[in-house]
Prior knowledge:
Its EC number is 3.6.1.68. With 291 residues, this protein is mainly α. Helix content is 57%, strand content 5%.
Amino acid sequence: xxxxxxxxxxxxxxxxxxxxxxxxxxxxxxxxxxxxxxxxxxxxxxxxxxxxxxxxxxxxxxxxxxxxxxxxxxxxxxxxxxxxxxxxxxxxxxxxxxxxxxxxxxxxxxxxxxxxxxxxxxxxxxxxxxxxxxxxxxxxxxxxxxxxxxxxxxxxxxxxxxxxxxxxxxxxxxxxxxxxxxxxxxxxxxxxxxxxxxxxxxxxxxxxxxxxxxxxxxxxxxxxxxxxxxxxxxxxxxxxxxxxxxxxxxxxxxxxxxxxxxxxxxxxxxxxxxxxxxxxxxxxxxxxxxx
Length: 291
Ligand SMILES: CC(C)=CCC/C(C)=C/CC/C(C)=C/COP(=O)(O)O
């Protein structure tokens, strides 16, 4: 990486990558500085400070800059003897993070495209697309909401009503939270996805996070915690949740990271459900108000 180096003479003024120090070209002290990738000459920092557009750009390129006013923390000296703000040394970090994120995104897109083998009938595994769509329905919000409402209606024990009502609440909470995150992140679904899903909200044109994955993870934890199930059935619940997530990528509905984050979010959503758990006392007062 080139370090800022002073050199005499005005010949370098038009050379790409070098800028005259001292504000107006080679004049002033007649010295030139190389523009470093990690350091900006201090006179440029001063000039940028008065320009709202460049100020915005600087704010977006370095989180450190957002924290303080650059000029007050100057402590390091450049080769030209001019102070360089200390926080400039941190500039490499955001770009390293940016490169890491871009690489992750590139791998995510590449892998998701490779795995989208049921994205259409002509795809390499297109013949199993109907089966994947069945798995999709098994993780959809409508059957889960209808199923929980039906169980609540049919349940004749207080414990059954408590669990099913809380499941209903959990499913509604999941729809709201996923909708909010989708609306905030606004990540488009993969280009190879065919938008032929049934019963979607407008936010469901966005893919991050996968609502099926959040629901599958949350419901799996819910069922494992509140139903007395034999070991094979417990394994089946976990396999179902994993398969729902996998089917989202195979169908081309989601990128891998949408599903991974969906599982993560759904897992912790269950903690929230536990924290907000509606107790029998609350339920009885709710029933009393209904009567
Ligand atoms: C009662 C009520 C508000 C029902 C709405 C149920 C509904 C339309 C849920 C949407 C489920 C859905 C298609 C989510 C998208 O899942 P992704 O995995 O594609 O994000």
